[in-house]
Design a protein that fits this description.
alpha/beta; single chain; five-stranded parallel β-sheet; 8 helices; Rossmann fold
Length: about 220
């Protein structure tokens, strides 16, 4: 089963562009997102246009303890909105730009990708580098899966049994760097602890069945 994650979603817009069309696209995106398994979505339903709206959205999403933020540029927006969101939420961000709509004789309708360029520049220069970019009308599920992995590492215990063989330096781990990068704390166990650990047969069977459901173990015998 995939790791469950909690994802905040917001769509930014500016009324000097076709924000009504952006809102329709956002509606379709929200429907599609809810079909993705093992994600608890915290969605700001209305377009975020003004600074106070961004601040309110940020406080709401932060109170929900989201793991990450998906920030859709429904249209081009000025750079202060993403900074207001990041100022409070302070989580990894997916900057999502929409494909441009067909030309209808007026000005460019969304200009979403230009807004993405502005947001990435502002975040980078502000020292914020934990963001990724996707362009299109579908979320990057590889990014979501990467977030699942990070969540699984940071919320579960990692154990090392015994110690590396003498001279096998490359098999060691830098525990503080692991904690810095992934939030992982490593627990060490001696072999006698493992051999003498009392196990519950039902839990062992449950774990075996879980492994069989995930991996191809057809080449492994009972021996």
């Amino acid at each position: 089963m995939k790791q469950e994650i909690r994802v905040g979603v917001v769509c930014l817009a500016r009324k000097t562009f076709d924000y009504k069309a952006a809102d329709k696209i956002y509606g379709k995106i929200k429907e599609d997102l809810k079909k993705i398994e093992q994600v608890h979505w915290e969605i700001v339903e209305e377009l975020v246009i003004k600074i106070d709206e961004a601040q309110n959205a940020a406080h709401r999403l932060a109170s929900k303890e989201v793991d990450v933020l998906v920030c859709i540029s429904g249209t081009f927006v000025l750079g202060h909105l993403i900074l207001e969101l990041n100022k409070i939420i302070k989580k990894s961000i997916l900057l999502w730009g929409l494909e441009e709509l067909p030309y209808d004789g007026g000005k460019i309708r969304l200009n979403s990708v230009c807004g993405i360029n502005l947001n990435t520049s502002n975040l980078y220069k502000a020292g914020v580098k934990n963001y990724q970019v996707v362009i299109g009308n579908q979320i990057d599920e590889d990014w979501l899966n990467a977030i699942r992995i990070l969540k699984a590492f940071s919320t579960n215990r990692i154990g090392i049994i015994e110690y590396r063989a003498k001279g096998f330096f490359n098999l060691d781990v830098d525990e503080l760097d692991l904690y810095k990068q992934l939030g992982v704390l490593v627990d060490h166990f001696e072999l006698d602890e493992v051999y003498n650990y009392e196990t519950n047969r039902e839990k062992v069977e449950e774990r075996v069945n879980q492994i069989k459901s995930i991996f191809d173990v057809s080449g492994i015998t009972e021996q």
